[in-house]
Amino acid sequence: MADELIAGSANQEFSELLNLAMPATTESIATITGAISEIMVRLEIPENKRFEIDLAVQEALANAVRHGCNGDPTKTIRCRLNKDPQGRIVITVSDPGPGFKPEALADPHHPDNLYGDHGRGVYLIRQLMDEVQFEHGGTQIRMWKY
Amino acid sequence: MDINVRKRSQAQLIQLRGPLRMGPAVDSLRQTMEEALGNGDTRIVINLAEVPMIDSSGIGLLVRFLASTKQKGGSIKLVQPSKFAVQTLRLVGVLNLFEVYDDDDAAAESFS
Predict the structure, then answer these.
(1) Which of A8, A56, B74, B104 fits as disulfide partner to A128, beta carbons 3.0 to 4.6 Å?
(2) Which residue numbers in chain A have pLDDT < 50?
(3) Which of 3.30.750.24, 3.30.465.10, 2.40.50.140, 2.60.120.200 is the CATH number of B2-109?
């Protein structure tokens, strides 16, 4: 599935490397992260950067499944991977949910939150990627790796 | 995710193999941990040598059960976390909540 998707989008403009929709299931996350990892290897992205991108995408998709779609597998999440004119990797993940206010998220380093079982995903994305934007009321995340 | 559980000294040793991320991997480890605590095993050693990646769901699970075991007089000790697992745990500020060991025996015997 991943190879077809990559091959199918290879000739599109704006250096689009991947553009696919997935049902809001945890199983689908691995399909997309696997496809992106393959592309990263082909682009000869260093291992460290590949890991950071892989984890950031994992977190963005997990948030979209869990919060954007409430785990409803009939809902659809879209993920795009592009290379911009400066050669930077740009990944967008969008979901059909109500969005959220990223500035309202709690600090996972706060002592009250250290043993919490959630609330680290967006923080991790911001640490792993070079630039992160939330768009359309928080229903889309765009993240860059230089 | 492969999960292997065995008794080592006074601890339950949980050997993981594969990425620890939201979905079947985290669900399986949660079930394993709940069973251990249900059996009264609160001294847990988790070997992460073959876990190339931990996401926020996996981290949440580890710290939640770390708190649970500590409340019951036990703990969770980590063995050989991979380079990227260490990096991720450090990024979110929870690495120093755990004792980290180079091998299973040292971790298990630390409960003595």
Answers:
(1) A56
(2) 1-12
(3) 3.30.750.24
